Structure formats: C-alpha cells, structure tokens
Automatic annotation (TrEMBL), chain A:
The keyword Magnesium does not apply. This is Peptidyl-prolyl cis-trans cyclophilin-type family expressed. SUPFAM superfamilies: Cyclophilin-like (SSF50891), Nucleic acid-binding proteins (SSF50249), PIN domain-like (SSF88723). Transmembrane segments: none annotated. It holds the Pfam family PIN_4. GO terms for molecular function: 3'-5'-RNA exonuclease activity; endonuclease activity; peptidyl-prolyl cis-trans isomerase activity; RNA binding. The keyword ATP-binding does not apply. GO terms for cellular component: cytoplasmic exosome (RNase complex); nuclear exosome (RNase complex). It is found in: Nucleus.
From TrEMBL, chain B:
Signal peptide: none annotated. GO terms for cellular component: cytoplasmic exosome (RNase complex); nuclear exosome (RNase complex); nucleolus. One of its GO terms (biological process) is poly(A)-dependent snoRNA 3'-end processing. One of its GO terms (molecular function) is RNA binding. It comes from Chrysochromulina tobinii. This is Exosome component 4. CDD domains: RNase_PH_RRP41. Belongs to the RNase PH family. Keywords: Cytoplasm, Exosome. Residues 21-150, 154-218 form the Exoribonuclease phosphorolytic domain. Its main location: cytoplasm. It is found in: Cytoplasm; Nucleus, Nucleolus. Gene3D superfamilies: GHMP Kinase, N-terminal domain.
Length: 729, 246
C-alpha cells in the first residue's frame, strides 16, 4: 500500500467521519472532466453545521502533488491558486485530465460505483463561466466513512486479533492447535524464525494456517513497506525480529483506528518484549496470563482439562505381545469398560509399552474395537521419580519363580528362619483370628500381633497324607480335617458368588543334577491341602482388606472379579513382597499397634510406590515365564517332539495352540511370512477356513515341537500343526 | 526436505517477489563517456557494464571479412562478482561460452553488412552476480550497441524463468538458480522471434512450453523498460545537442 497524501487523506477522512458532507451538494458536473463537491460551509449544506464541522472544514491542507495520472475515478482535491489551499471541496474525475497531474493532490480513487459517475454525466447542465453546473441541485444525503476494511475480517463475536511472538509458537504449539483460539495474525517474521528453529513446529503451524476454520492469517510484514524493519547497528537479529513484531502489531492497531472494542493483542512470553511493547502503547500479555484470564481457559489447558471433563481417559498402555501395532489401555475412569483397545499406528500415536497415555473414545458407532489415542506428555503425567522410592520398594522381587535357583529378597536368616513358622518354636506373627460356625460363616474376627508356637510344620504333601490316612485320629490330623471341611465350604461359597477357577498348567522341570539341563517336565500337582491353605489365605486377605480405604479408587473398583470378593488385598508373609510389608504396616497402624507410616499418608507417593510394585510384579512374572521359556528351549533343543495340542485362540494369520503336556502355548501361522494364505478368517464363527480344513477354538490338533535355531542367539520354540494337514495357497 | 521455501504458501519468494515478478531493472546508457557505446544494467543485484568499441579497423587483419563487420565479444567477471573472491582463470570456459552466446545472439540481429572490413568489439564486465547474468549481459549489450549507433534490426530482450521445487518463477536469483532448472531466452520483440535460448539443468519436456512462455512474458516486460531507457537517452542526447527544446 502506498501512502501518497497522508495529510489530505486524514483530513478528508475526518470530515467524513464527522458527517460534514451530509446535505452538501455536487455543484459541478463537467462531462468528460470532473464532478466536484462543494466546500463545506453554512450556505452549502442544508442542515445546521456543527461547530466541530465548521472548524474542521475551515482547515486547509498543504499540497501533496504526485505524478499519479488524473483519470476517470480519481479523487482529487480542489484548491484555489495557492497550492496549499486545499479545503473540503474535491473532484471525482470523469475523464483524463493531464493538466491536473502534478498540480492537484490525488487522495483516492473510486473503487466501486462507476455507475454513479455515469449517472452524473447524464444530468442536464448549464455553463456558467468556466463551470459546467447541473441545472438541479444534486444533494448528498449522507456521506459516511466505513470502518477500516481490514483483512482478515474479525470473526463474529470476537473482540481482538492476536499477534503471536515466536516463543509462543515454539513452546505453545499444542495450545495453538486447540480450536478455541481464533483470529490470529501470524507474522512472516515469526514464520521464518519458527522455520529456522524447528521445522516440525513450523509444519504444525502451517497446517493450522491451512485450516480456514481457525482463522490464522499470515501477514508478510517483511515485504510490507510500512512494517519492514531494518536492523540497526549493534542490534541483534533477535532484537530486530522482536521489534519487527512490535512494529507490525502497531501497524495493525493503527489500521483499526479507534474502533470500539476491537484490539490487537500481542502474545509474547518474553518479558523484555512485553515491556517494550507496553512502552509503545501496545496491548500485550504472556500466553499464561492470557489463558488464565480467559473464560474458556479449561478448554485451552492441555490434556488435564480433557481428563477432568471426562473427555479423555488416562491409563497405562500395554502393547499386545502378539502384535506390536496393537495395544490396550487400562483405565479406571470409565464405567463398564476398563480396557480400551488401540489398533494401528495412527491410534497408537507413537506411544510405547508402559506409557501413560490419554485416550479419547471414538463415537460409539465406531466401537468395534478402535479408539483414538492421544499421547500425553509423558513427563507431565508419569512424573515418576524413582529416586524417592523406598529402596526396598524398588527391589521388590515379586516372588520371582525362577525354575532353577531361588533369588531371595531378604537376608537368609530373616527369610528362612525368623520369618518361618517353624515347629514348636515361638515366633512373632500377625494373626487374623476368626470365629466361624459349621457352614464357615464368620461370626467374629480379630486382627492382632501375636506370639505363636506351631504345633507342626507340614508340607502340603504331608498334610494331605495325614488327612487321607483314615487310621490317624490324633488332634493334629482332626484339626486338619476340620480346616479342610471349612475350606471346602468357603470355596463353595465363593464359587456360588461367581468366582473364577483359573488353572493354567504350571510345569516344573526336572533338572539334571550335573548339567542343570532339564531332563523331564512335570506338572505341579495340586492337592486338596494346597486348596485348603489357599482358601484361608484368601479369607485372611479379604478380612483384613476391609480395614483399608483407598484414596484413589472408588469402592466399586475394589471388587476382585476373579475371586468374586468385594474387597481384596494381598497379605501374606512380608518376606516375599514389599506390598505385603506395606499391608502389614498399615494393618498394624489400624489396630493401633504402631504409628501410621508417613509414606502411607501421601496419596500420590503411595500411588507411585504401588505403581512401581505393580510394575515389578509384572516384571517378575515375565521373568518367571522367561525362565520357563528358556528351560523349555533347552529341553526341546535336543529332541523334536510331536504332541497333542488344542487351539485356544484363532487369529487372522494363524492359531494359538496350547500343548497341555508341557504347558506351552504358541502361535502357529497358517502361511509363511510374505506368502499368501489359503485360509480366510471368518469373524462370525471365529474360524480360519480353507478348502477342506477349518480351524476353530478348542479344536484338537497334533503339533510338532522343535527349536528354530536359524537365528543366532535367538532360538525360538517352533510349533507346526501336522494333523490336520494345512493346505497351502 | 530443503529448509528453504522458494515460494511460500502466501505466494512470496525469498526476496519478497511474487512468482511472475521480475527484479527491478535499472539501466543507464552511455555510462562510459569515452566508449563508442556503453550501458550499465542492474537486474536486482546482478550488475553488468558493457562497452562497445567500433566499428573500427580490424585489429587482426587476417580475420577481417570483406563484406561485413567482424563481431568480437569478450566477457570478464570481476574477482569479487560472486560471494567468494575468485580471479577469473585464463581461458575460463564459462566466460568464453557466455561471450560466444552473446556473439551468436547479436550477429544475426546486427546489420553487420553495413560495416565491411571493420570490427565491432563488445566487452561485457560482470560487476556483481546474483543470477540472470546472461540475461543482464544481453540486455546491456542491446543498450550499448544502440548507444554506439550500430544498425540493428531489433532489440534483444532477455529474461529467465525457471521451475524451482515445482513452482514457476520469473527472473531467478542465484539462490533460486541453484535449486532448480533455469531457462533463459532472448526475445526479438519487433519480430516476436526468439534469438537466444538456453536451458540449464534438466526440465521435464511437458513443462518446457510453460517455462518458455513465462520467460517470454518477462522478456516483453524487459522490452518496455529498455525501450523507455532508449527513448529517454535519445531525448537527452537530442536535447543536449540543442536539436529539440526541453
């Protein structure tokens, strides 16, 4: 935009704004030359002229002549012979008038309404001296000044334009991506700086700009004559850019004029820039101040708001062990659904196993099995500070069931002697004492610190033998039988209320005493005595758990669905798991035996500690499984075996089979990698179907078990179905 | 991806021009008063000074033609013309090639048969290079030859256009030249013929037409500027000799 006659433009604009031209008239219409508007004075207008108008109209403006050609549509100031005598009369050119070039001040041009000029040319005129004048008075009913015709237009209801500083874009791009922020002017200076600093942010900014709904507009201030800023001697490029941003903001503000209620707000996180902007009379705020002051602040705050509003759900991501592109998030904030499936790279959104993520549910119509995941700022949400963990909490072994050696978590003397209830020795204990009736209904319960002396220490096997031996009627055996009867009653009650009986085959390796290589596989043999001890352990856990209250979960979530118990807490000998230690301390505090442990009062610290324990527990289980897997590999390394197996899961590309003899599970692919499969997956029946062969869950198959050693250091147990014969594509 | 964006989504190039905008072309004829003809041309930051000497006797009698003037072109780039200080090597092939290109372009346009047994020397000096050196050299040569009063059939107005990262750009700078394919054309505006054309680097055949038309459009704009310069210069000359009253 060229500014060629600033003074004249300002003067005429003011006259228009004051409405001085209302009821004035066009006194001269010279076809092919000009149509001229009369100067404003009491005789020219028919209304009463305001004091302000007459004062303004009396003013004259200096000559601002240019070589702009006087052609049809040009607005040119009238004047007397004095070049500096321009007042309020001006002409609208009706044709080319070369003799006016460089002699009269051009201040505007007819952009729209040439038909009005054409109509003027049709009026009847008379000649009077040098003037050709209309026979009838042509009155101007109203002359107004439109508001500044600023592009971009402010959206409906918006009160301000935002101008962003580079630091806001670089650090608050997530915020800018929220749809609540609109009507933003993005300066070229900012774009360039962002591009040079961080291309990824630049691309994100570009895609916001491309979204028309967002109303982000680019202003190429560097290429604009009035907003270009040259670097001053000694000025750093950063300072120059800041100045360029301020100048552009100022320019926008000046374009708006004094229009009521509309402002240009500079958002910058740079305190110095803010200070300089305020000095220059600009409105500016830091992004933090601004967001906090906004009514819709919650919408702008990142994930936290979504979580609070229930739009997003937070949970820990577990990547499927069979498919790295699929995972599930366990959330507690969602009623009825605790596990949300994420399928595909897009839904996973770069999250990896163990991440704390926020997920947004897809519309219910799309609830086949997909949800959209939004990767939370891991640092913010998973603020796990491992250093502060209790050392023991970190070392928690989760009772790793290694196949070969036992790793102990506490000193041997403590673990194997003092904390073991040896026969006929006094031992300190924490006891739950029940009074029960014949149907095993608990009549009263007492939890206490006790000193106990065991009558006998029996292995499960010994206990079982005693119970089974009808000849034995000593008090010890009888009491065992009573306990067993009660345990059965308890189990029946649990089963009646819907407890699950989860039994996966657990295998034990028989190791060669010399080489420690497995020579055979045996199943753990579970006896009634096992079940008996288990039942009372459960009862103890359920009983003492009633004492606890949780600060992080609702009572509805206390339910242990596998055991069908309304409440459950792990509570066994504290030498194995740190969690048990915690439970013991809490319980002791509850029965007012000792003071409440400090760490138990801090909800977040406790949650963190428990999360760590859970993680350790999971790791321990994985380690246990890995240990079994390792021994399985060693076992099968030397001998390829054929065994009966059952299909336990059907997938699109194969089936998961279970070999009960060895307790191993594995996937058998129906087609080699890259090969076309002869099988088609039928989701309705959950079956893989090929001509002449169908694989369904629970189908019995015969599999060949071998160890694939083709990849060095990565041996893999390989299962292949040999019966039925699988067709190949 | 390159960090440079040769045409922003707003439609601006790095130097603030739009795609179809040529750089400011400033020219001054008779820049060297002692030369038979001379012109100084600035095309953005590319600055070229051309001096014409002749027609005069052939320096080398052996090469003179009995029916026409011999046209000799030489091109020198000053050591500081580009960013790095680089003295022009003796027998610089690029320089020789450019000089030959100018000679081949102008030979058919100049009425050399009017000056038998004589020689006309065109010396092109590149003061500063920022893309479009060939175009600037050709434009400056046109003006210098006119200044020297040598009979010509037409102007030769040169401009370049190119395709840079898929964007069609007019009058490429050195930076833009480095990133894409550039086509320079010399237009004979009177006869609407193309007197010179050179394509540097590869361009898909399908887009040659497009780029060529773009460059020709630029050359027409150049013609307007050169014509105005010649008129002004002629007015001045006539005025200074008292042939017309100012």
């Amino acid at each position: 935009m060229l500014t060629i006659s600033d003074v004249t433009v300002a003067h005429i604009s003011k006259l228009f704004r004051l409405g001085c031209y209302d009821t004035d008239h066009i006194f001269r219409v010279d076809k092919g030359f000009v149509a001229q508007i009369q100067s404003i004075y009491a005789g020219a207008v028919t209304k009463t002229l305001s004091q302000e108008c007459s004062t303004e109209a009396m003013k004259t403006v200096p000559a601002e002549f240019t070589s702009i050609r006087h052609v049809r549509g040009i607005l040119s100031m009238g004047r007397t012979e004095d070049p500096n005598s321009g007042g309020s009369s001006f002409s609208m050119l009706l044709g080319r008038a070369a003799h006016l070039d460089n002699e009269y001040t051009v201040f505007g041009k007819v952009m729209e309404g040439d038909e009005v000029l054409a109509a003027l040319e049709q009026v009847e005129t008379r000649k009077e001296g040098i003037f050709v004048m209309p026979k009838q008075r042509i009155t101007i009913t109203r002359a107004t000044l439109d508001g500044p015709d600023l592009e971009p237009k402010l959206s409906e209801g918006a009160e301000r334009y935002y101008v962003l500083d580079t630091n806001v874009v670089l650090h608050q791009i997530d915020l800018l991506e929220r749809p609540a922020l609109t009507d933003v002017i993005v300066l070229q200076t900012v774009l360039d700086e962002v591009r040079h600093n961080k291309l990824s942010v630049y691309k994100r900014l570009r895609s916001i700009i491309a979204d028309e709904q967002r109303r982000f507009h680019v202003f190429c201030n560097e290429f604009h004559r009035e907003t270009f800023v040259a670097r001053r001697p000694g000025e750093s490029p950063n300072d120059r850019n800041d100045r360029a941003i301020r100048v552009a903001t100022q320019w926008y503000q000046s374009q708006l004029g004094e229009e009521a209620g509309v402002e240009v707000l500079l958002l910058t996180n740079d305190a110095e820039n803010r200070r300089l902007a305020r000095d220059a009379g600009l409105k500016c705020e830091s992004i933090h101040e601004h967001v906090r002051a906004r009514a819709d602040a919650a919408e702008l705050m990142d994930l936290q708001a979504g979580l609070t509003a229930g739009e997003l759900h937070q949970g820990k991501l577990n990547i499927s062990r069979h498919n790295s592109r699929q995972g599930a998030v366990f959330v507690s904030s969602l009623k009825g659904h605790t596990s949300i499936l994420l399928r595909g790279d897009e839904a996973l959104n770069r999250a990896i196993d163990g991440d704390i993520v926020a997920v947004r549910l897809l519309p219910e119509a799309e609830w086949t099995d997909q949800v959209d995941s939004k990767l939370a700022d891991r640092a913010a949400l998973a603020a796990a500070d491992d250093d502060e963990e209790d050392g023991a909490g970190e070392r928690d072994m989760g009772a790793m069931p290694f196949a070969a050696d036992l790793e102990t978590a506490v000193p041997k003397r403590l673990g194997e002697d003092l904390c073991s209830l040896h026969e006929k020795v006094d031992r300190l204990a924490f006891s739950v004492i029940w009074v029960v009736d014949h149907e095993a209904n608990v009549i009263s319960t007492k939890v206490a610190k006790t000193v106990i002396r065991s009558v006998a220490a029996l292995s499960y096997e010994q206990a079982q033998l005693r119970m089974d031996d009808a000849r034995l009627v000593d008090p010890l055996t009888e009491s065992l039988r009573t306990l067993n009867r009660l345990a059965k009653a308890l189990k029946a009650k649990r089963a009646a209320s819907g407890a699950l009986s989860l039994a996966s085959p657990e295998v034990r390796f028989v190791l060669d005493s010399e080489t420690r290589d497995p020579t055979d596989v045996a199943m753990y043999n579970l006896k009634e005595a096992n079940s008996m001890a288990e039942e009372f352990m459960l009862l103890a856990n359920i009983t003492q758990a009633r004492y606890f209250s949780s600060g992080t979960l609702t009572p509805a979530d206390y339910l242990h669905y596998g055991l069908a118990a309304p409440i459950y807490t792990h509570f066994t000998s504290p030498i194995r798991r740190y969690a048990d230690q915690m439970a013991h301390r809490l319980l002791a505090a509850i029965i007012q035996w000792e003071a409440v442990p400090r760490e138990a009062l801090d909800t977040s610290a406790a949650t963190e500690l428990i999360d760590n324990l859970n993680q350790r527990h999971t790791l321990a289980q994985h380690a246990g499984r890995a240990s079994v897997a390792l021994h399985t590999l060693i076992f099968f390394r030397a001998k390829a075996t054929e065994e009966d197996a059952y299909v336990i899961k059907v997938r699109e590309n194969g089936v998961v089979v279970l070999v009960p003899r060895y307790g191993i599970e594995g996937i058998v692919y129906v087609a080699a990698r890259g090969e076309r499969s002869a099988f088609a997956y039928d989701a309705k029946t959950d079956a893989l179907i090929a001509p002449g062969c169908t694989l369904r869950t629970f189908d019995k198959v015969r599999v060949a078990i071998s160890v694939d050693q083709s990849r060095a250091h990565r041996p893999k147990l390989q299962l292949a179905i040999i019966e039925p014969v699988l067709p190949r594509a | 991806m390159s960090r440079s964006e040769f045409l922003s989504p707003e439609g601006f190039r790095i130097d603030g021009r739009r795609a179809g905008e040529a750089r400011r072309l400033r020219c001054r004829m008779g820049a060297l008063p002692d030369a038979d003809g001379s012109a100084y041309v600035e095309q953005g930051n590319t600055k070229v000074l051309v001096s014409v000497s002749g027609p005069h006797e052939c320096v080398s009698k052996r090469k003179q033609a009995h029916d026409r003037a011999m046209l000799t072109c030489e091109f020198v780039a000053l050591p500081y013309a580009t960013g790095e200080h680089k003295p022009q090597a003796h027998g610089d092939r690029a320089a020789a090639e450019l000089a030959a290109a100018v000679r081949h372009t102008f030979e058919p346009v100049m009425q050399l048969q009017l000056y038998p047994r004589s020689q006309i020397i065109v010396s092109i000096m590149l003061l500063q290079a920022d893309g479009g050196v060939r175009s600037a050299a050709i434009n400056a040569t046109t003006l210098a030859l006119i200044d020297a009063g040598i009979a010509m059939e037409d102007f030769v107005c040169a401009c370049s256009a190119g395709s840079v990262q898929g964007a069609l750009l007019l009058d490429l700078t050195a930076q833009e030249h480095g990133a894409g394919a550039e086509l320079s054309v010399g237009l004979l505006p009177g006869s609407e013929r193309v007197g010179y054309m050179q394509l540097e680097s590869k361009l898909p055949l399908s887009s040659v037409d497009e780029v060529l038309n773009f460059a020709l459009e630029g050359a027409r704009q150049v013609y307007e500027v050169l014509q105005t310069a010649v008129r002004l210069h002629a007015d001045e000359q006539l005025g200074s000799r008292g042939l017309i009253s100012a």
